[in-house]
Amino acid sequence: MRQVFDGHNDALSRLWGAGGDPVARFRRAEGQVNAPGARAGGFAGGFFALFSPERRAAFDFAAFRGDAGAMPPPNPIAQGPALASVMAQVGIARQLHEAGLLVLCTTVAQIEAAMGRGQVAALLHLEGAECLDGDLLVLDALYASGLRSLGPVWSRPTLWGEGVPFAYGRDGDTGPGLTADGRRLVARCAALGMVVDTSHLNAKGFWDIAEMGVPLVATHSNAWDLCATTRNLTRAQLKTIGETGGMVGLNYAAMFLSPEGWSTGRARVDDCLRQLDAMIDVAGEDHVGLGSDFDGAPMPEGLGSVAALPNLIAAMERQGFGAVLIDKICRENWLALLGRTLHG
User: Fold this and answer.
1) Could you give the CA distance from residue 200 to residue 216 in angstroms, rounded to a whole number?
2) pLDDT digits (tens, 9 = 90+) for 93-152
3) Residue 260 belongs to what H/E stretch?
4) CA-to-CA separations, 116 to 112, 119, 232, 317, 331, in angstroms, rounded
5) Which helix or strand (DSSP H or E) is residue 248 part of?
6) 3-state secondary structure 1-54
7) Which CATH class is domain 4-341?
8) Distance CA 265, CA 149 (A)
9) Domain ranges of the chain
10) Is the pTM here over 0.85, yes or no?
11) Could you tell me whether strands 121-127 and 103-104 are parallel, antiparallel, or unpaired per DSSP bridges?
12) How far apart are CA 96 and CA 24, in angstroms?
C-alpha cells in the first residue's frame, strides 16, 4: 500500500474540542483521522495542526455551507485563551506519542524512520499565531516543544497580518499585508528553519512573504481558477510557489474544490483530480502534494477519512498519473520541501 504524508489535518484540535480521553478516541474509528483508519488507508503522517477556536466544542461542518456567497467573518481571539488551547493540543500530541499512536518528529530523518516502522509521523504546525507574544518568546518555547511549521494567520486578523474571509466570487486580495510584527515573525521562523504557511493568509500577505525570500508554502489550498473562493490561489501565486521551491497541498474540503462544492457542501474525488491537474500545470509536479484538511472540513464522497485514501490514489492511476508522479504527490515532494527547510 502506498504511504501518504499529508500537509494538513486538524485531528489534535478535534480531539481537544471533543473532550474525554484523546488516546482512547484516537484508537477508535472516530473522526476523519484515527489509528485504525491510518492503518487501513496508508496514512503515514503529516502536518498536525494546533488551532485555537473561539470556544471548545466538537466541530460543526454545517458552518461551511456557502449558500449565501460568504460566511460570517470569525471573531479575533485573545492571546491567553489561544495559548491555553494550543498548549492543551501539544499535550494531546505528547499523549498520543507516549501511547505509540504517532511519533512526534522534527527532522526528515525522524519522519522517514517512523514511516519505515509503519508508525504515523507527526510534524506540529501552528494554524494561526494568535497564541504568540510580540516578543516571540512563546514561539521559541513551542519550537522547543517540537513546532516546525507555522501559519501567521487563520481567517481572522492577528498581530501579524490579516487572513482571508470565507467568500466566493473574489480572490484573496481582501486587505493589507503583513504588519511589521508579522515580518519579524516570518524572519524568526526562517532563522529557526520552520515552514511558513500562507494558507488562510490574504494576497498582500502572500506577496509580502514572497519578498522575504523564503519558500512559499500553502499547506492546504487549491486553484482559484477552478473554484473562485478567497481561500484558493491564483495562477500567479501557484507559479511563484513553484519558482521559490515551495509547495501547495491539495485541500480536499468540498467547498474549495468546485463551485458546486462551495454552494452545496458536496464534491467528488474527480474534483480533487481536476485540482491536482491544474496545480501541477502551473506550480510544477515537484511542488504539489496533498493537504487534506481532514478533521477540519466536509470531505468529498468516497474520501471521507484517512481510511479512504486508496480511493484517491486509484483515481490518480485512472487519470494516467504514473507511479513516480503519484509518489511525489503522496509523500516525496513534502519530504523534499522539509529537507530544504528544517534544521537538523
Assistant:
1) 13
2) 999 999 999 999 999 999 999 999 999 999 999 999 999 999 999 999 999 999 999 999
3) helix 259-264
4) 6, 7, 34, 24, 13
5) strand 247-250
6) CCCEEEEEECHHHHHHHHCCCHHHHHHCCCCCCCHHHHHHHCEEEEEEEECCCC
7) alpha beta
8) 29
9) 4-341
10) yes
11) parallel
12) 9
CB 202 within 8 A of CB 165: no
Three-class DSSP category at 163: strand
Q: Which of 18, 247, 234 is nearest to 125 (CA)?
A: 247
Calculate the dihedral angle through the C-alpha atoms of 86, 87, 88, 93, rounding to the nearest 10 degrees.
90
Enter the C-alpha cell of residue 314: 486509484
3-state secondary structure of 290: strand
The mean per-residue pLDDT over the stretch 240-256 comes to: 98
Q: What share of the chain is helix, strand, coil (3-state, %, to 5)?
A: 45, 15, 40
Per-residue pLDDT, 72: 72
Task: Determine the residue type at 116.
Answer: G
CA atoms within 13 A of residue 147's CA, in its CB half-sphere: 30
* Angle, CA of 29, 94 and 118, to the nearest 5°: 55
In percent, how much of the chain has pLDDT > 70?
A: 97
Alpha-carbon span 332 to 290, nearest angstrom: 11
85: enclosing H helix or E strand: helix 79-98
pLDDT band at residue 169 using 50, 70 and 90 as cut-offs: very high
